[in-house]
Amino acid sequence: MQALRITLCAATMAVAFAANAAEVEVLHWWTSGGEAKAAAELKKMLEAKGHKWKDFAVAGGAGENAMTALKTRVVSGNPPTAAQIKGPAIQEWGEEGVLASIDDVAKKENWDKLLPPVVSNVMKYKGSYVAVPVNVHRVNWLWVNPELLKKANAKAPTTIDEFFATAEALKKAGIQAVAYGGQPWQDATVFEAIALGVGGPDFYKKAFIQLDANALKSPTMVKSLETYKRIKPYTDKNSAGREWNLATAMVINGKAAMQFMGDWAKGEFLAAGKVPGKDFLCVPAPGTANDYTFNIDSFAMFKLPNKDAEKGEKDFASAVMSTQFQEVFNLNKGSIPVRAGMDMSKFDSCGQQSAKDFQTTSKKGTLLPSFAHGMAMHSATQGAYYDAISQFWNDDKMTAKQAADKLVAAAKVQ
Amino acid sequence: MHDQNKLWRIALYGVLLYAAVYYLLPLYVMVTTSVKSMDEIRAGNLIALPMSITFDAWTKAWATACTGVDCNGLSGYFWNSVKMVIPAVLISTSLGALNGYVLSKWRFKGSELTFALILFGVFIPFQVVLLPMAQTLGWFGLARSVAGLIFVHVVFGIASTTLFFRNYYVGIPDELIKAARLDGAGFWRIFFKVVLPMSTPIVMVVLIWQFTQIWNDFLFGVVFSSGDSQPITVGLNNLANTSTSVKEYNVDMAAAIIAALPTIVVYVLAGKYFVRGLTAGAVKG
Amino acid sequence: MTQFNGPAQYGFAERWLPRLVLAPSFLLTLVFVYGFIAWNGYLSFTASRLLPNYEWVGLAQYETLFANERAWVAVKNLFIFGGLFIGGGMAMGILLAVFLDQKIRGEGVLRTLYLYPMALSFIVTGTAWKWMLNPGLGLEKLVHDWGFTSFTFDWLVNPDMSIYTVVIAGIWQSSGFVMALFLAGLRGIDDSIIKAAQIDGASLPRIYWRIVLPALRPVFFSTLMILAHIAIKSFDLVMALTGGGPGFSSDVPATFMYASAFTRGQMGVGAASAMMMLATVAAIVVPYLYSELRGSRNA
């Protein structure tokens, strides 16, 4: 009898446990290399909580294919638990009425304290948390090959004038100064760093966040565009269409001295066995040492059909924000944790500087969303900005004034 | 005359071989890259011959490369594709054969118009149908299932299979059908006893064509499948694409060749039947 | 072509059976092709952004579309690409077919070599092409390394020329198939016609031009249909090779439509561009289909 009771008891427990275990389906595009390893950590943590992870990985570009897949899934009435969506796109999805609130998790774990307001506002739709941030990439970095600088007797630039002085010195020494990848998002990445360096954070906010027409056609914008175009003679003519990592390889191999790129470029250097501070330098893009353009990956949560699934969703959100995951994930991916008060001792010098600057710029109000990486404007507007900037870079007949006018028109695209 | 002929033959072979080089170049780049080490690739020799040969990239692509949170290479995706491609090819080919038979041998008022309508269907950009199709599959309960994916491939394969079969069957003499009629054979009997036995060449063509199209499809695969049912093109895309990680071109290329292997094998082994089948179809065209 | 639909010859079942057999395909096409075109047409008049919504906005999306410089570039590129791709692919395919038909040793091997690109998707070959066409990595570098430093081949990175690299890769992929179609056609032509013409003293090129190729009219028809639909739907090709760049200089309608509808959250504009694409196709293909099908009925 006793034995039977125990069996019964065990059986009920097993059933109860099974009922709590949900299938957590996550759409992401971290499918290869360190990114995939980072995502695999998340799977492990959720499985430890008894949930079943269902992988929905769709790579390609900056998630273009994933967005297509996501749209069809939402239209067919089977959204995944969570999907990798970032920046203002979270608001766009919120407007479609398909996102779920995870406020109770956020309140319990005190997210409002852990996240800078610039970040938490992005994660909220109408005041409720609908998304959870994963990491922070700093975009306004300049990657430098110090050996080449030494050859040209030049120093790593801190201002825009210094940058062009260094570039000129390199050119005289017969060294290609800038490694450049001519794809629209890379054009925009370089341009936003230059515009920030030329115009400063207030101008940046007006031009790229508030989409203010006066700022877009101001002399500062024209100067930013001209400065951006001044880089072109220091690149090679074969840069069109080049992948960012091939441009990084040029810096690694000593074929070019500098590259504007976000902190993911670090992974390429490390994979090639280079040591930060010795074989390569990470310095803030010229003139932007006190500013920080961020690119934050996040997961948006979808409305789900039943309670068990919602439980899985909440456990997922909580796991993403946990210190354990934030550390392991970001060590693998080259970015830094998004939550405050993390121990950064395991990170390298570039990562530590990034984390320090993240906190200080957040307090000073110069922590800025990167428009090139979908953090500042709606996707349609961003696409129109891309078009204008890429066209200006590629078309040598186009003047900076014309490009500024195109940006004004682009800002109206919603 | 003889000399001129010889010169002409030399020129002929010259042009043909030159063309062969043009066709082979990309394959050459893929194969050589797949057996290089990453150090060699990073040094920038993308189209040079490899300095040393290693097959590590191949084993990695098949069994251990990451394509999501799992790192089991392409092997699983490969079988998913097989499971999808076989039924889809068989169903769309059968439908095409029947349609072609009706449209060439059993014409009725409006059958030409029907043909034109079906044919125009090949011009619809597939991007247009993604969302309505998703909705429809959702209603049928077929969303993100292999069955749904097969259904999509069948629907959008009908136009080309019908075109192939119809053009082939137009060439079968009507007298044959008439004779069978006089012997008392009906619609189905004529199809199975007279028409189908003559169809081997065009069936080969359509099978090869459909197999290639469906095996290589990426757009439908990425949108209408999920997780453990994704076809190999999606696996390849996941393996080769990364937003912020280090790219391993040798593994990418090895994976690309693995993904293409079945279609290459089909063309090498059955290419003969392909041309032969087209020949048979074009005789009376 | 005799038709067999006299009621005297057929019973009721046999009159309706053919229609019945055709019905599933017809219905599938009706719903999944024409129904979806209609749905898409409706969307193009709505305010759809990220996901479809049904708020009517009239012609606003078309106005946005026509005001978009990039859309016009895409249209222009489609005509350049379509024309050169179809013309070039056809010419190359016919040439190879005629040459291969001259009792060539190793024909089987060569034929397979010409045909295999059709077996590969551009997801697979795109990177290889990109490297070869890139002046710093591929052909131009190779020729420079050989010592001919004045050689330039920078179409891939030149906004004015980038669309032509798409043509090169497109022809590479499809011309083998054209070759197969025409080779098949050539094999179907009675040798005695050619022999007779040769005895009459006609030169070989003349025979092909005046007698053989005109006899292959149906093959032209099939090939044209196949190439035209590949050209219009070219998407993988452009994405893999140039990504529509430099800038948006090699954008085509299919990539434009995809970007609007799926990447940029302008689904209404995407739908409008798809409708314009279909209208263009219809304007070109429908008259052709009509004349060809009429022709085959009267023949």
UniProtKB/TrEMBL annotation, chain B:
N-terminal signal peptide: none
Keyword Transmembrane helix tagged: yes
GO CC terms: plasma membrane
GO biological process, one term: transmembrane transport
Membrane topology recorded in Swiss-Prot or TrEMBL: Multi-pass membrane protein
Transmembrane spans: 7-25, 84-103, 115-134, 146-169, 190-211, 253-275
Location(s), subcellular: Cell membrane
Family: Belongs to the binding-protein-dependent transport system permease family.
UniProt protein name: Carbohydrate ABC transporter permease
Organism: Chitiniphilus eburneus
Automatic annotation (TrEMBL), chain C:
Coiled coil regions, renumbered to chain: none
GO cellular component: plasma membrane
UniProt keywords, alphabetically: Cell membrane, Membrane, Transmembrane, Transmembrane helix, Transport
Pfam families noted in UniProt: BPD_transp_1
UniProt keyword annotation of DNA damage present: no
Entry-linked InterPro entries: ABC_transporter_permease (IPR051393), MetI-like (IPR000515), MetI-like_sf (IPR035906)
Subcellular location per the Swiss-Prot or TrEMBL entry: Cell membrane
PROSITE patterns in the record: ABC_TM1
Lineage top rank: taxon: Bacteria
TM stretches of this protein: 20-42, 78-100, 112-132, 163-186, 207-232, 267-290
Span of domain ABC transmembrane type-1: 75-290
CDD domains: TM_PBP2
Transport keyword on record: yes
Topology versus the membrane: Multi-pass membrane protein
GO BP of this protein: transmembrane transport
Stated family: Belongs to the binding-protein-dependent transport system permease family.
Protein's recorded name: Sugar ABC transporter permease
